[in-house]
Amino acid sequence: MEGSLIQLNDLPDEILLIILKKLDNIEVLYSFIGFNKQLDQLVHGSIFTNCLTMTRRSNDSYYPLNGPVFQRFCSQILPKIHHKVKWLNLESSTMKDILLCTNYPNLYGLGLYNINKEYAFRIFTDETPLIHIFQSKISSLVVDIPQKSITGTGNSITDIFTAILTVCSKLEYFRFGPAYCCQLRFQNPPTISSSTLLEMHVRVECFVDCLYLLDGRFDQLQRLSKQIPNLKLFSLRCRWATDKYSELIVPLLHRMFNLVELDLRLVMFGEKRFFDGYDLKYNIISHLLRLNKFVFNISSHLRLNDQIYLSSNEDCQLSFKDIQNNKVISCVDYFSDRKRGQCHIYSYPYQGKRYQSITNNFSYGLFESVREVSLYDERPFEHEFFVKIAKSFPFMEKLTVYNKKAQKNKLHQPSKDDNRHLSIIQYPYLTTLDLNDVHDDYVEQFLLDTKTCLSRTLEVEIDYEPVERVTHNFTRDATRINCAKLLYFCVPSEISIQQQLKDYFPHTKIYYLCVRAPVDFEDIPLSSNVANDEMFERDVMAVQRNGIALKGWFFENSIIDIYSTQLGNIASQNTTYSQCSFTLIDGCREIAAKYPDIKFDIMIINNTCMQLVNRPTQFDVMVTTNLYGNMVSNVCAGFVAGSKYGEHYAIFQ
């Protein structure tokens, strides 16, 4: 060791810097500050002191530094380098101690990670010494609230967002997240504003919330201010419908008066009329005098309330007569059953990846960019319609059909299986087909090999009963070939899977269907070495809040290209079998003697599980000891044994 230290001290500063840069700043400061004069001078440099990450990260979770490291930083290291620190990344449990252990005259940026929702609201609203730091120093702020703390009651994410912008009066950069779970929702137009904020990263729950933030209240945002004379290109895309076009979208576009290129992809509700070329001309184009390229894809929806006049597709096309340099396609439909109307207008060639709610009025063309298509109408889709759809969308990967009306033309065909006069449709790239809400004729349309050739295996969302009817109880030869292309098929739990069904779907995974319900997991780190009572209480509350918990690995092995379940093994450890099980059995036998109507038996775990899975009806109810019952239920459910939290909650692994 002494020789190695001599070699390290003999290295020039340039080489030492190359070595130290490969280490974490916290490790460098903890290991070398005060070590000797040469290293002490090097590690005091701005490379190692300007930005400090005072956390440990594991499995996408943030944890405090180890005790001795944390204590030395607060008592010795941070007071020595306090004037050099400009940015601190902290986690909630040690944040207060680190920020208050010394003064940071040049601190301007904070990253707050793994910060509980309620704690976040408290530190930005309570009168504490931290408030002074947020108000007087911080111009850049990153706030990361874990998803597990967002659910439940208490202050909302929007409350915290509002509190931060109210307190941090010097804020120029603000990232609020993580974006996938921290979604802002404003019940009313927010009251917050900022004259200093230059860059903001947030996620909103709906389109209107986005427009609220872009209405000029943050008047120094470099890309979205009250007037944006330098903005040349702007794209606004939203899949969710809005009724705030006139109130929020039009004023936003008017502030961008030097736009050269504009891309609008919107879905809107109308009260009296559809959105058409007149709206584009008078509300948008006439205000953007430098506009050279305008790409749009706009759907508007109208509720039918006995209107005297309903515009036609010809009326809609006529409204575009004064719009130059654009080929515009329009499609107007009215649905009497739903009492709704829709108008779809777009510039051609079409540039989106999705084309929604296509009807029989569809204007055919070539849409090479589209990958997802949905069809809807209250009039039947005939075979010729699907031929045109396949030609118009040659690279379609997902198709959803909504139509409850029976096909008409098939009634005039000589035979249900004799469709040789029809062209067979091919969907070479189709991987997903949704037929959950259709008449049986459309199930037949895709399963009959004289109408459709499914060239590859695909996921098909479809109910059991229509398939049973169309395939003549899984005996029809004309549907056998396409049925063999299904990746999976769900069978109601009351149906017994017979060999005939397996033969009809030879390459298909057949599942029992219990309930169609999405599962949203709340991820909480779990360890046998609980750091403190607060973490233990957090885990218990999470189980109580969700009602059930699954314990397991939440990552995919990166070395192999398949999903893997890992079971740990402790090598070279001897185990001793005790006699406690016999005492337990004797106790159970004594209790069972008091209840002669209950059959008492002794079965090992494997045999019990096999009996329950293969022939569950032989038991009216099973009464077991606690641990035995847990093991049985876990094995039957496909889990290995888990842990219990008190008498009410269990976590299965």
Automatic annotation (TrEMBL):
Cellular component (GO) terms are:
mitochondrion
Kindly indicate whether the keyword Oxidoreductase belongs to this entry.
yes
InterPro entries associated with the record: F-box_dom, IsoPropMal-DH-like_dom
Q: Could you tell me the keywords of this UniProt record? A: Oxidoreductase, Tricarboxylic acid cycle
Q: What does the entry give for GO biological process?
A: isocitrate metabolic process; tricarboxylic acid cycle
Residues in coiled coil? none
Is Chloroplast found in the keyword set? no
Name it. isocitrate dehydrogenase (NAD(+))
Organism of origin: Rotaria socialis
